[in-house]
Amino acid sequence: MGEHRVDPSTVPTSGAPRPTRARPRSARPGSARPTGTQPEPARPGSARRDRTRRGPTLTVRAVLVTCAVALVSVLVTAIVAVPLAVRGVEHREQQALAAQSRLAAEALRSRLDTPRTVDEDRLLRQLRAQGIEAYLVRDGVVDRPGLPAQVVERIAAGRHVADRRLVAGRPALVQGRALPGGDGVVLARAGSLGGIWRQVAQSLWLPLLAGLAAGAVAGLLLARRLARPIRRAADAAARLRAGERAVRVPVEPPHEVADLAEALNGLAAALTTSEGRQREFLLSVSHELRTPLTAIRGYAEALADGVIDSAEVTGTGRTVLVEAEHLDRLVRDLLALARLEAVDFPLEPVRVDLVRLAAEAERTWAARCAAVSVAFRVEAPDPAVPVHTDPGRIRQVVDGLLENALRVVPPGAPVVLATRWAGPDPAAGGVIEVRDGGPGLTDDDLAVVFQRGALHQRYRGVRKVGSGLGLALAAGLVRRLGGEISAGHAAEGGAAFVVSLPPDPYQTRTSA
What we know:
Elements: H1 44-54, H2 58-108, H3 118-129, E1 132-138, E2 141-142, H4 149-156, E3 161-167, E4 170-179, E5 183-190, H5 193-241, H6 255-305, H7 313-339, E6 350-353, H8 354-371, E7 375-379, E8 386-389, H9 391-408, E9 414-421, E10 430-436, H10 443-448, H11 454-459, H12 470-480, E11 484-489, E12 495-501, H13 505-511
Parallel strand pairs: 7-9
Antiparallel strand pairs: 1-2, 1-5, 3-4, 4-5, 6-8, 9-10, 10-12, 11-12
């Protein structure tokens, strides 16, 4: 029986012309894409560039944010500092004007009782050259108009004056020194608050602008520092997406960046492990699929070549049927595994009595076990163990566990199907257990027993193994049913699989 394969599409049927396939014409440059064809996949970097065009980069945003923060800080500083600076400037001018008023009062103390002299005129001109207007009060009368009456009255009453007043219609700082006999000297320096504010603002704008520039530079440096690990992580993710699995990102402070690097490194390691397991799983599944396919093809070629006697056709057909059923079971397990994580996986949980389920399974498996000299036993100490589950799916789990046990149990060893309550309270749910007297599992096996193809990879060629799908499928089904499954060592010497299922809601309410 050779291994030459014949493509059925190339073999012409008798009496019928060979079908011809129209060759699609190549599209000319610039022509429209034919209907139904798939568009070209986007290049890895194109999506990244498109995202970049949709908005500013992290560096730009960080610079803008830091500039905004610096601007707000500058404005707040200006709002707080400028009034303080204005008050400071005004206080210094008042102090300087007060000192000059004291000097002027001392210089003119002995001359106010006499007519105006040349020395007096010289002093007044010197003050006027400094922008200071001097008013002399003699016997409560000011020498010229412009000074407010309240100031004159206070000087005449012998009280000093330090205030801001309107002098000759203009705001001015006023300092007056009272002398005995209703005399005094009043100095006025013209100048509005607006002028002082402008003076202060002109002295502060350069430091404030320097602070804003420093904030922008700090934002740029900070943005680059933040963007560098993120860009490195993005490049690593792109390389992972491209299929490179040896990518590792250096773990650097701060903590958030270190967490991102560790997460990417963990993802790369997980992808490597997952793809390795998937590769091994596909190899084992392909081997399992090839076995029945080889048998079916061999017998089919033998039948086609006429090398099988007519007396052996029935047996050959039976063998082909068994191998086809094996192949169908593998395909069904693969489909069930693929659909387990789907949201629309069909489940119909109802009230199920585990004792009745075990009795129904006994009618099927007792004969199969007896055919290979394996003792099958059912343990059901309770009259009924109701749980809330899908009867078809949980029976699929039980059949899978029993088939797995029957595969490895030697003749004369037992296979036990047991049911019981999960605890003294019915609210704890029920348990169904499959134990066997086979070779059992090691502690290392228990850690990976429900991983796809793990035991198949370990024991292939050592003892009888299945496709590596049954236990993974059983674990997935139990989890979807809301239960738990565990593996351990059985008292019979082999493996024990314990399935815990949620309680029946009606039974829980009535027992309460």
